[in-house]
Specification:
It is built from 28 helices and 24 strands. With 702 residues, it is α+β, with helices and mostly antiparallel strands. Helix 1 packs antiparallel against helix 4 and helix 13 packs antiparallel against helix 26. The protein is elongated and about 125 Å long. The two termini are 45 Å apart. The relative contact order is 0.11. The N terminus is likely disordered.
């Protein structure tokens, strides 16, 4: 922690907002530059090699426009060698490292296929008489090796570009954070680098500026657009006491906020880190694919060797046998298999970040699509988590004008510390207008009952009907109203002025406008929705009925919420998700197969979750499930394409159809087919960038 001096903080914090991610961006940019350079060189040299080999490919035709020295095997050797040993050096070094570990991978197949073709061609170039003496043609296949490596490099470049495209949202976030902040210290405003701002500093923000860090508004009001972080396009009103997020845009008004997070603790930095972790992690499907590759490569090598031995024994033609060997090695290269899962995970994670859905890991992305039960917390999840006046009724017999009455009520309740008092004050202030607050004297608070005070010479009481009845007041006229409000799970506060009942308030935690539509969307996805709450059963059932949840589990202590989730898991109906926002939800979030935290909730809940909804909008829950299902469908499609391609291609490459049809799968054609398979897998994964979740109908606030 930094220390302060008369001249300001003497220390600075590390670079904020994803310094590691910026390093990854630089590494990716460098990788793309190297791949483009190598692919360009390989493409030019391969084209020259193919032109040089035209006479051979055309059956020995004479092409007068090609000089003899250019079409000689030695020229092809010189042109193809840089393609293999400079452009494709990583494939051979990777194969060697795998060999030293007594394993084999995709690099092994690429290196074996191209290396065998090049070595066989070198033998035919240096010692053609040895082959012709055996009655075998001294053919060379330099163009085959060069084309294969060029196509594989193209696949690598497409994969790298796919990774870059999936990080587009993160790049935009990083670019949004301004490099400097306008800090107020010792009464002096100075513009300093963001890296030198410390917790507790006061930062001034003007209209149209981007917030540099996270904090809490201490002065001024404005509307802030947080769409780049939460996915919600509507600007959010900010007033003193409200939290603000770095990298969001101040639309109107000026305000000052106190910095609460810097460096890697900011929301932006945590988002970047979580997305990076998700994109680099592995799903169960990918781990299975990796295991398949582990045994697939040795089996393919064994098939290739068997094909060579068999055809050499049958035909006595070493060149023909070598063609089968190279074709098997090339067409079996499981590049598409290796790309099938990570490309889809990277694209889906990036798409989720664009929409305010942060997946902590690839496994969370995978499991979300397998959910069968969704457990929703009530307070702060289905409801706004803050009491508000939902009903106000002026009773017959009341003598005061509504605005005057509400002004007196606001004056009295502003002295109270009761949790419901703030809701009454906010409502009264919104209805009473900008009236001068009347003087309050003789204020008295009765714990659990209400408050009493003298306002402008009148005795004002605000409290529960039971308290008024205890004082001897006739509350019979209130009974129908109180009964109706309590059936709706409202807390009732009655206003009495000079012994006369004037009005009553119904107070509750309002249901979020999107709650019912989100629950309906989850039901349409085939999930069972459960409401889990610590509130009284009546209150929980009213909320459940209002949003369309039939199964309500109420009066559950915070420590027992995880046990309820465990019981649902043990019922064997499939994976269970918990959606919550409070500290008391953290154990249940951790217990669930997928924990989903509202981004507006506590840090503890977010830390215990697998998915974070940055905006706190319940529509993110069905959107996350839909994105997961779309991603897993894409992965399954990719794996099918990769396996079907290899299963169908290997027997043909090994010469299965050659005795019957005379079909010979050229190694160059095999390389093209292999590259096409990789391209198709990457293209299929990139379709996820167009993902759009089903929009929820807009409802008026409850």
């Amino acid at each position: 922690m930094s220390t302060s001096s008369p001249t300001g903080p003497s220390c600075c914090h590390p670079e904020p907002a994803g310094g590691s991610a910026m390093g990854m961006e630089r590494e990716l940019a460098h990788e793309l530059t190297v791949l483009r350079r190598k692919l360009s060189v390989a493409a030019v040299l391969t084209l020259l090699v193919m032109v040089s080999s035209l006479p051979h490919m055309l059956g020995g035709a004479h092409l007068p426009w090609l000089p003899g020295w250019f079409t000689s095997p030695w020229s092809q050797l010189l042109l193809s060698s840089p393609v293999l040993f400079w452009c494709g050096r990583e494939f051979f070094s990777g194969a060697w490292l795998a060999f030293r570990r007594h394993s084999a991978d995709m690099n092994t197949l690429v290196a074996c296929g191209t290396g065998v073709a090049w070595l066989a061609s070198l033998l035919a170039t240096a010692f053609p008489g040895v082959l012709t003496a055996e009655g075998l043609p001294a053919d060379v296949y330099y163009e085959t090796a060069a084309v294969i490596l060029t196509l594989v490099l193209l696949g690598r470049l497409l994969e790298a570009r796919a990774r870059g495209q999936t990080s587009e949202a993160i790049r935009r976030l990083l670019q949004l954070q301004p490099p400097t902040a306008r800090v107020l210290r010792d009464g002096v405003v100075s513009e300093i680098p963001v890296s030198k701002v410390v917790v507790g500093d006061r930062v001034q923000v003007r209209p149209g500026e981007t917030l540099p860090l996270d904090g809490v508004v201490v002065e001024g009001r404005s509307w802030v657009e947080e769409s780049m972080l939460t996915g919600e396009p509507t600007p959010v009103a900010k007033a003193p006491g409200d939290a603000v997020i770095g990298a969001s845009m101040n639309r109107s008004g000026s305000f000052t906020f106190r910095v609460s997070r810097v460096g890697g603790d900011t929301v932006l930095a945590r988002i970047v880190e979580l997305v990076r972790q998700a994109q680099s992690s592995h799903t169960q499907v990918q781990r299975l694919a990796d295991q398949v590759v582990g045994w697939f490569v040795p089996v393919v090598i064994a098939i290739a060797i068997a094909a060579f031995v068999l055809w050499f024994l049958v035909s006595g033609n070493g060149v023909l046998a070598m063609l089968f060997l190279v074709s098997v090695l090339v067409i079996a290269c499981p590049c598409a298999l290796g790309l099938a899962t990570p490309t889809a995970i990277m694209v889906a994670s990036g798409k989720g970040a664009e929409n305010g859905l942060i997946f902590r890991s690839a496994e969370a992305l995978e499991t979300a699509g397998q959910l069968r039960t969704i457990v929703l917390d009530k307070t702060g999840t289905l409801t706004r988590g803050q009491p508000a006046v939902t009903d106000f009724e002026s009773l017959s017999g009341g003598a005061l004008p509504i605005q005057s009455l509400l002004a007196m009520v606001a004056a009295v309740e502003s002295r109270s510390e009761h949790p419901l008092a703030e809701a009454i004050v906010a409502y009264a202030a919104s209805r009473a207008g900008a009236q001068d607050a009347p003087a309050v004297v003789a204020f008295d608070a009765q714990a659990g009952r209400g408050v009493r005070a003298t306002v402008a010479g009148r005795e004002v009481q605000v409290g529960s009907p039971r308290w008024l009845a205890e004082t001897g007041m006739d509350t019979t006229p209130l009974d129908p109203v109180v009964a109706r409000l309590e059936r709706a799970a409202r807390s009732v506060a009655v206003v009495v002025v000079d012994g006369r009942i004037e009005a009553c308030f119904g107070i509750a935690d309002p249901i979020k406008p999107e709650a019912r539509a989100a629950v309906a969307a989850l039901c349409r996805l085939g999930l069972e929705v459960v409401l889990l709450s610590g509130d009284a059963r009546r209150t929980a059932e009213v909320v459940g009925a209002a949003v369309g949840i039939a199964r309500v589990i109420a009066e559950v202590r915070p420590a027992d919420k995880a046990a309820v989730v465990r019981q649902l898991q043990e019922q064997g109906k499939g994976a269970v998700a918990m959606v919550g926002d409070g500290i008391n939800d953290a154990p249940a979030l951790a217990q669930a197969d997928v924990g989903i935290a509202m981004g507006t909730g506590t840090d503890v809940a977010i830390a215990a979750s697998d998915i974070t909804l940055l905006s706190g909008h319940l529509g993110g829950v069905p959107a996350a499930i839909e994105l997961s299902r779309a991603a897993m469908a894409t992965i399954r499609q990719n794996l099918f394409f990769a396996f079907a391609y290899n299963v169908a291609g290997i027997p043909i490459a090994a010469g299965l159809l050659f005795p019957l049809t005379g079909w010979l799968l050229s190694p160059m054609i095999a390389g093209g087919a292999m590259a096409f398979s990789s391209v198709s897998v990457v293209t299929n994964a990139l379709r996820l960038r167009g993902f759009r979740s089903a929009p929820l109908p807009v409802e008026s606030p409850a």
